[in-house]
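Hey L., structure's done. Input below.
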Amino acid sequence: MKVYHGSFTRIETIDLTKAEENKDFGKGFYVTNIRKHAERWAERIAAEYNKKPVVTEFEFYETAYTDSIYSVLRFPKPSREWVEFIMKNRNPNIPKPAHNYDIVEGAIANDWITSQIKLYEKGNISMDTLLEKLIYRENTHQICLCTNASLSAIKLLENTHQTKIEEISKLIIVALTELKIDKLTATDLFYNSDTFTQLSDYNTNLCQKSWNEICEMLKKELKI
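Output:
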């Protein structure tokens, strides 16, 4: 299963010592099989650090769910157990780690859900009311790799989108130099162009076009 991690940098090596405590499923490396959710998180955290959002793709081996070497907990949908598990992991007064699972999978407790859980904690709504509110919410997904052992269940995928961008960029810069533009100027013109901005955006799928077409776009933009 292909999964995604949103951040402001591409993840080449997973370092669990850098993971934060008191998250939904505890300290660990989080991925999702819903790309748009990873993109949203990447935009959110990148804005905090004044960086560009980056989504890193991985392959998660689903055989890990039944492999005896891993201790796995899965929540097919939000439930009383899911809420209680999240509350335990988020509670700063409970010694960490709050569980001994290698891999945990379930829904994400986003900002809205967190606000409802807080109402439940304060006694303002019942568990039944909380669960009823969660039934019709947008489907979400996350997997937390909680231990170093669990990292063998995931593999970094080649960033084909980035690789294509780099290949196209080299060809376009060479084409500009053939128009009697020195390489430094050609490089600056290209990387500061709207064409490059569109090319870098995963959602435009511009990198699926030939480099010649993209080069013509650039020429029209630069009026050369």
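The CA atoms of residues 6 and 42 lie 4 Å apart. Helices lie at 35-48, 80-90, 111-121, 127-135, 160-177, 183-191, 194-200, 211-222.

-- N.
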